[in-house]
Write a structure and sequence with these properties.
- There is one protein chain.
- The protein has one domain.
- Helices cover about 0% and strands about 30% of the residues.
- It is mostly beta strands.
């Protein structure tokens, strides 16, 4: 049985119901539970998800190893499996987090 996640907490693993995207919650707000979707469908707990794939010729949109954040920066997800679905938080597309610049060593 798959159902939408009711509570986000750091360390929770989520899976897409429409493609192969899997993520780990890095940061989540304590005062509310935003709805995380992938490809327009709510993400489910990874341990209850059935394996899904985006097809052999589909080019991934959500990339493994990248972090994705919502507009206010209160929700952060780390992608652990690539897929064709786009991540959204409360109906707004999440953006890829830019890597921090390392200090120059002299």
């Amino acid at each position: 049985m798959t159902s939408a996640v009711r509570e986000l907490r750091p360390g929770l693993q989520l899976a897409s119901a429409v493609c192969g995207v899997r993520v780990i919650v890095v940061r989540a707000p304590a005062d509310r539970t935003p709805q995380i979707t992938c490809g327009g469908e709510p993400m489910v707990a990874a341990d209850t998800a059935a394996p899904a794939s985006g097809g052999p010729s589909a080019k991934p949109v959500t990339l493994i190893g990248k972090r994705y954040v919502d507009a206010d920066g209160t929700v952060e997800l780390l992608c652990t499996a690539s897929g064709v679905g786009e991540l959204s938080c409360d109906g707004t597309q999440m953006s890829r987090k830019a890597a921090k610049a390392l200090p120059a060593s002299d």
